[in-house]
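Journal club prep — side note

Before the paper discussion, L.F. wants everyone to see what a predicted structure for a comparable chain looks like in token form. Sequence:
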Amino acid sequence: MRLLHLIAALAAVSLAAPASANPQLALVEGARANMDLLAPERVRGKKFAYDHELTIALPASYAALPRRTYPVLWVLDGPLMTRLAVGTLDTLVIGNHAPEMIVIGVGSPAADGLAGVSRRIMEYSPPGKGYAPPGLNGEKFTALAPIPDFPQRADDFLGLLVDELRPMLAARYRFSGEHALFGHSAGGMLAAYAMFQRPGAFQKMILGSPYVNGVAGAVFKAEQAFAARHKDLDVDLFVGVGGAEVDEYFLAVSGIASGTARFAETLHLRGYQSLTLETRVYSGEDHYTVVPRLLGEGIRHLWKKEAAALGSSWPQRP
């Protein structure tokens, strides 16, 4: 009973706090305690002969504030990453470390299992040949994981995201106009490619351990072609990679860590005026354990100004 009384007292303190203390939860009448994770739905893109699955989560205040609009975080590899993004945001929002946003996960239907997830190799690959990195890495990669020729469909998948799903969902949900994209591994390759193939489509990006060396370095070729035509790149970018990825043989063959470093260095050397870039290497983290850290820190970094405006979620000293 004493614990319940303490919780009630803290709730009363929160309700008596200024409006800037925690607008996401404490002072919005009728707000949920967490995001509203909707039932998955299937969609069929114009250029695909099979379904993709959308998993959408609405902010805790969405129903309570019918005139408010929200930024959108698009999450690649939906069945694997969306729930992590939602749980991360629930925690960051309640602590005022991030503003509320709509989360949209896009990927293969979860019921299709890993066979469905494997289609990401096609969907996330930019135009080119094969899937392996260039040079010696490519030779070692092909010896370990020979992959037959396949259609690279990154442009078709970006068309699904930007040209089909975005207007369809904008008519249904209240988008603010700010769009962010999170992709890890091959998803990071697609997100990096989107920066140059669809500039301006996403204002913020989080790239986790991106396979930018894939398809014989197609992302670097896209960046080089972009740089020949453009002097600026207007995007806020957060890139993270696990330090332990260097010592995992297949990831070393794939050039995950070295490719990430080269990618970040290339962007710095270009001197794109509007680009903001934060790169972090997470010591001791591998290709999987790094994901929660880089996603949470990426959100905090990219929306740090908005979080600062919210103030502390805790009662302050009088």
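L.F.'s comment for the group: The longest strand covers residues 175-184. Keep this in mind when we get to the figures.
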